[in-house]
Amino acid sequence: MAKKNQKNEVSVTEAVQTSHRKANIAVIIIAAVTALILIAIAVMCAVRVDPLDGIKAPDSKKSEHYELYDLGSSTPLEMTSSTQSKIRTALGNMDFSIMNAVLQGNWDYSYNFVRNSSDKKITLTADEIKDKTATEKEYMVEFVYVNSVVDGTLKKSLAQKIEVDGETVYFDRLKVLIGNTDNSVGEIYMYPYIYEYATNKVAEDGVRYEKYRITPVKVRANTTETYKALAKIVAEVKNG
Questions:
Q1: DSSP secondary-structure letter at 121?
Q2: Which one of 121, 128, 205, 239 has the minimum C-beta count within 10 Å?
Q3: Are the C-beta atoms of 66 and 141 separated by less than 8 Å?
Q4: What is the pLDDT of residue 10?
């Protein structure tokens, strides 16, 4: 009888030990998963995305520059070298953390063509490109680069370029509309184009001008600080 009781006690002890081991393993697994999640969150908080990272700043040594348009205006403001520097700094404040974007349900931070409800690329004519300017709620900054068309032919070595939806887009002018995303990760719209093609109605008997088309590009951005900075720059320019 005593032996039987001893066996029962041993069985109970082994069962308790097994249960403890399983509990310890479960705790270890939970702790490990929690640690990985915390590390992932920390990484996503630390990694920031700059929407203009793929866009080269104009080079003043090449007479390249920015043009700034006030809200609702179709005429650029008078610029100085100091103002140019301030615009460059302002445009560098649209970055955001991946964690912030994910929490708002935004997963794609690349350049994307603007498409309609049928997923077809929207196109703008030369006239529409020329007429694109600031709105009542959006400032416009235009990046002006050296002319990339020589003797009527696009010299890709002179042009700027970005990758959009797997395509290479060449340009020597870039219009960027910037509204206020109110501290959230919203979108900005960009209009890359070849200046000569969009403005020269005489070249090639106007054929190039009539046929020229571009597709706007959108990208995620947090514009709040940039919007404030541009408003300040506009006020300074207007007040002399």
A1: B
A2: 239
A3: yes
A4: 47
Which position has the token pair 């700094």?
89
State CA 232 to chain mean position distance. 22
**Alpha helix ranges (H) inside 47-103:** 81-91, 98-103
**Residue corresponding to tokens 């866009």:** 55
pLDDT of the residue at 20: 59
Q: How far apart are CA 147 and CA 194, in angstroms?
A: 8
Give the H or E element holding residue 128: helix 126-131
**Six token digits for residue 97:** 């953390």
CA distance 67 to 69: 7
Are 149 and 196 spatial neighbours (Cβ–Cβ below 8 Å)?
yes
The span from the CA of 83 to the CA of 71, in Å, is: 17
Give the pLDDT of residue 131: 95
Collapsing DSSP states into helix, strand and coil, what is residue 102? helix
Q: Cβ of 126: how many Cβ atoms within 10 Å?
A: 22
